[in-house]
Write a structure and sequence with these properties.
alpha+beta, 2 domains, 17 strands, RNA-binding, Helix Hairpins, 8-stranded mixed sheet, BirA Bifunctional Protein, domain 2
Length: about 450
RNA sequence: GGAGAGAUGGCCGAGCGGUUGAAGGCGCACGCUUGGAAAGCGUGUAUAGGGGAAACUCUAUCCAGGGUUCGAAUCCCUGUCUCUCCGCCA
């Protein structure tokens, strides 16, 4: 969420930033100025009536204490207050309605992208800022991970469909172990070498948490909700703390750890790494990436989350992105870093780097991590603050997160990049200790 | 699932219809004291919104949402969460 005072004072800038995203300022902002003015007038009116009521009530109290003479005078005042109260209820209702309208329109405005983000309409306008690693040359035609996985007996999509439907996977044997090895390797690397604290959060969250990270109210259709979760209520701006949704990413529970808290400045930056499964309805992705395990309803991910002082978020964003890149480098997987353009940057993000891994089986680069700086956008929604100095006013922190990495996509990147002519998969050096010392995955007899 | 107790500021903790935005303590800041520190003493220490150039002022907030009342942290209802005991369970 943007700051109301900021939007009020910088309406032209906000409009320009919305246009850069390809959004229509008129739709998102509506008659912002008029609504803002109406709201403030309504609040002033209602508060003046309240002030009068409070004043009368105090007089009544004083008079009643004074004795029987006072009590008579008090009765007259009580009558005046009773009349005042009816007007007040109406004024209060009007003010609350306008306030809610403004709040909701504010909550639907995406974050402002940073100035260095290239202006563009779609992923075609993203900017590749670096490319790492040598693409391996094969003396045979590299296969896709779904062919390799099936023939090795480590991946079973048909049985997964029987169990759960399309877009689910079952892993067997070394395939299951590879997934687990990747999780451990990533967590260990981030915790021991990159200074993150490991955290294991709940895999279900309430709607308030989803509001905090910006997933609600706009993106309810992307989420799996449990039967006690109410998407209609969320659409009306009612965020409950007694309902449950499956998390689409660990970003949601981990960022919300400090919702409604004031953090000690000395603790910043705070860095967490978390492994969780992620659940996505993939609404609107029908027909996209239907083969293999690129796009699943459930996938595993190791996430990186940081809380920083505003002035530190830019360098911390670079570090976090490097932390994710180092996993790819340790696994010797070729990748490139892409700075997303304004039109491709997510709703809550001010600046996003995507890391794209090379997939020889499909002859293309594919997103494997997305590292974003949210500035104060999420912190404002989730009310996460810190105190810059001992007696100073609390300020909103900046939040950041990135995949470090998407485990399922790392799994398939290894399978495709490390495939051998006979269909076996070589295990990257760093993973061997996590794989019980085996060097290759071969067809089990 | 059953029974009971509770939820107050950065933290602990009083208050249980009317100068209570909230005693007291801790923490923190500033000052005094000191060779320097500690201790001690003094002063100050919530958030959001409205009005105002500012000084300042008003409104709301004692888990959340309703209600009673001229007036609610205080009384009533509903919900959520926490703790204790019992049951069940990985």
């Amino acid at each position: 969420m943007l700051d109301l005072q900021f939007v009020r004072a910088n309406l032209e800038l906000v409009e320009a930033k919305l246009r850069a995203r390809g959004a229509d300022p008129a739709t998102l902002l509506g008659d912002f100025r008029a609504l803002d003015l109406q709201r403030r007038q309504a609040i002033t009116q209602a508060e003046q009536s309240k002030a009068r009521r409070n004043e009368l009530s105090q007089q009544i109290g004083a008079l009643k204490k004074a004795g029987p003479d006072g009590a008579e005078a008090a009765a007259a005042l009580m009558e005046e207050t009773r009349v005042l109260k009816e007007q007040l209820d109406n004024l209060d209702r009007a003010a609350a309605a306008l306030d809610e309208e403004l709040r909701q329109s504010l909550a639907r405005i995406p974050n402002l992208t940073r100035d260095e983000v290239p202006v563009g309409a779609s992923e075609a306008d993203n900017l590749t800022v670096k490319t790492w690693g040598e693409k391996r040359t094969f003396d045979f035609t590299p296969k896709s991970h779904w062919d390799l996985g099936e023939s090795l007996g480590i991946l079973d999509l048909e049985r997964a469909a029987k169990l759960s439907g399309a877009r689910f996977a079952v892993y067997f044997g070394a395939g299951a172990r590879l997934e687990r090895a990747l999780i451990s390797f990533m967590l260990d690397t981030h915790a021991r070498q990159h200074g993150y604290t490991e955290v294991l959060p709940p895999f279900m969250v309430n709607s308030k948490s989803l509001y905090g990270t910006g997933n609600l109210p706009k993106f309810a259709e992307d989420l799996f909700r449990c039967s006690d979760a109410d998407a209609d209520a969320a659409g009306r701006g009612e965020y409950k703390d007694s309902d449950h949704w499956l998390i689409p990413t660990a970003e949601v529970p981990v960022t919300n750890l400090y919702r409604d808290e004031i953090l000690d400045e000395a603790r910043l930056p705070i860095s967490f790494t978390a492994y969780t499964p992620c659940f996505r309805a993939e609404a609107g992705a029908a027909g996209k990436d239907t083969r293999g395990i690129i796009r699943q309803h459930q996938f595993q991910k190791v996430e990186l989350v940081k809380f920083t002082r505003p002035e530190d978020s830019e360098p911390q964003h670079e570090r976090l992105t490097r932390d994710a890149e180092e996993i790819l480098e340790a696994l010797n997987l070729p990748y490139r870093r892409v700075l997303l353009c304004t039109g491709d940057t997510g709703f809550s993000s001010a600046k996003t780097y995507d890391l794209e891994v090379w997939l020889p089986g499909q002859n293309l680069y594919r997103e494997i991590s997305s590292c974003s700086n949210f500035d104060a956008f999420q912190a404002r929604r989730a009310n996460i603050r810190y105190r810059p100095a001992p007696r100073a006013k609390p300020e909103f922190v900046h939040t950041l997160n990135g995949s470090g990495l998407a485990v399922g996509r790392t799994w398939l990147a290894i399978v495709e990049n490390y495939q051998q002519a006979d269909g076996a998969i070589l295990i990257p050096e760093v993973l061997r200790p996590y794989m019980g010392g085996i060097n290759t995955i071969q067809r089990e007899s």
